[in-house]
Amino acid sequence: MTMPASAPENVETPATAAAETETARRARRLLRRRPSLLDRLPPRSRLARALLVLAFGLVLGGIVHIVSVLSLPLFAERDAFARLSAIAEPNTVTLLDDPGPAGAVLPASDPAFVSAVCLYDLAEGPMKLVLPTTPDYTSVSFYTRSGLAFYAINDRAAGRQVIELDLMNARQKAELPDNDEVTAADQLIVESPTDEGIVLMRALVGEPSARDLVRQRMAAARCEVSGG
């Protein structure tokens, strides 16, 4: 008995051809990428947009950097005011120890200087500062509680053997009588932007043998509420 011959396996039927055609069509659709909005722009427009994005990133980075730097004193747990508050009373001159191997109360302190500080608080009234000058050089610098410097003077600018001035806030300065006969030459008034801050007094020690004398002159400084 003769068996019927079977169809070859590689013969393409109409159904197989149709399936392969549909698969190829789907593959072409997947491979065909729809152009984005940036691709549709002319070359010059794409360059301008890239430069705009770059400029925006640089400006944003600069703003973040500036804000971070300005915020450091506000968030520092052991800033200068906090360190000095542990050893100094408000509205009182405190003579600082000379820098030694163990370090210094204030960072970057110069051992050639004798330093004293006054943590001022203007809540009770204006403050008067009196500082005898020393033979070589004497300076006074004023800082807000967050460490912002707003005024400085030295013995050369004062032109006297004693630096004497009044520190007050804007309200206290505005309350000064208009008919006050005291001239600016007789009364130096410094306006503080904040009620609390630091007065840093420094005196140069020209000779090692003069350090004790300089410390005595600095210890004689006064920083106290004047009563207006």
From TrEMBL:
Occurrences of domain DUF1254 (ranges): 107-219
Source taxon at top rank: Bacteria
Protein biosynthesis keyword on record: no
Pfam families on file: DUF1254 (PF06863)
Keyword annotations: Membrane, Transmembrane, Transmembrane helix
Transmembrane segments: 50-75
InterPro entries per the UniProt record, alphabetical: DUF1254 (IPR010679)
Spans annotated as Disordered: 1-23
Keyword Transmembrane helix: yes
Name listed for the protein in its UniProt record: DUF1254 domain-containing protein
Species of origin: Ancylobacter crimeensis
